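4.2 Preliminary Data

To establish feasibility before requesting continued support, the project team ran the inverse folding procedure on a target of 118 residues. The structure was first converted into the token representation described in Section 3, and no sequence information of any kind was made available to the design step. The complete token record follows.
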């Protein structure tokens, strides 16, 4: 697709915006572009893009939401809790929260995705 250019070097669809005095109307008034012969385009022409069905849930997720990053960040949180606080019960609480997070995002959500695909 090539853009047509006016004598001023502007694409034809930008000409009404360049100088509204050329057509005698403001570029914000309805129908201002209708008076210029070289602005012939339609906004109703749109390309419909169908989303591709993906084989796995992980194909649709960014890098920070991949299984390796979920596991790695959980392990860092557990290790960081132990290294900073050296308290078993706080580390156990952190581990419990991380394990619930892993269960949700690494087991339950992928299973639900697979079931919704079939």
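Position-by-position output of the design step:
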């Amino acid at each position: 697709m090539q853009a047509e250019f006016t004598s001023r070097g502007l694409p034809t669809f930008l000409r009404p915006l360049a100088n509204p005095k050329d057509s005698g109307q403001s570029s914000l008034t309805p129908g201002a572009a209708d008076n210029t012969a070289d602005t012939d385009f339609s906004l109703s022409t749109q390309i419909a893009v169908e989303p591709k069905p993906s084989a796995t849930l992980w194909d649709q997720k960014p890098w920070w939401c991949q299984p390796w990053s979920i596991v790695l960040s959980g392990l860092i949180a557990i290790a960081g809790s132990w290294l900073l606080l050296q308290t078993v019960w706080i580390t156990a609480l952190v581990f419990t929260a991380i394990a619930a997070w892993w269960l949700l995002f690494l087991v339950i959500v992928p299973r639900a995705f697979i079931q919704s695909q079939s």
